Amino acid sequence: MTNHSTVDYYEVLQVNSTAEPETIHRVYRLLAQRFHPDNKETGDDRRFRLLTEAYQVLSDPEKRARYDLQYTIAREERWQLASKGAGLEHEAESEQLVRTTVLEVLYARRRYDPNRPGIFVLDLEKLTGTPREHLDFTVWYLTQKKLVQRADNSMLVITADGVDYLEKHQRDLPKRLAAQNDQNE
Q: Any idea what the CATH number is for the domain that residue 64 is in?
């Protein structure tokens, strides 16, 4: 079994932490059908096992109570760590860096695996090293700007506008860095 402190079972099941048992059961059945390894189109053995594990914990009142305690503590710790800053002087600069990183990851995923261009937020958190709580703002912003969108399975995918934006800003990056170095001297 996976270490509960490293997995957000609510995110895995795509439900709120206050979800009723009936909702958890209904969502699990829907996702389990989608990701069952026998499903030729959308089957995913790893995802199915994680869904089942999440369901086993969240559908049992005692296990859920223990998990919720760990979940709350882990969330608070992540917020405290994330609120101490990412090492950049200004939050706006930090956020721009996270946005660019998210776009780069989604760009690479679409370019190198066009049949499966999406990434779950849980995986994006690991790939970018950014707590999910901070990714919420980033994803909201990029979605509002139509640079990314959520696919039917709730994965994030880069849009054509997102590709254009990233490519344009990547070309401008050397100029911006040179200008920044000139200001610092």
A: 1.10.287.110
Q: Is the pTM of this model over 0.70?
A: no
What is the domain extent for residue 103?
91-184
Percent of residues, the chain, with pLDDT higher than 90? 26
Q: Are residues 99 and 143 in contact, defined by beta-carbon separation less than 8 angstroms?
A: no
Q: Which residue has the tokens 């994006």?
A: 124
Tell me which of 49, 83, 117 is where a domain ends. 83
End-to-end CA distance of the chain: 54
| Model pLDDT for residues 96-149, shown as the tens digit of each residue | 888 888 898 899 889 888 888 888 888 888 888 788 888 888 999 999 999 999
Angle at 104 between CA 49 and CA 178, to 5 degrees: 150
Domain with residue 106: its CATH number is 1.10.10.10
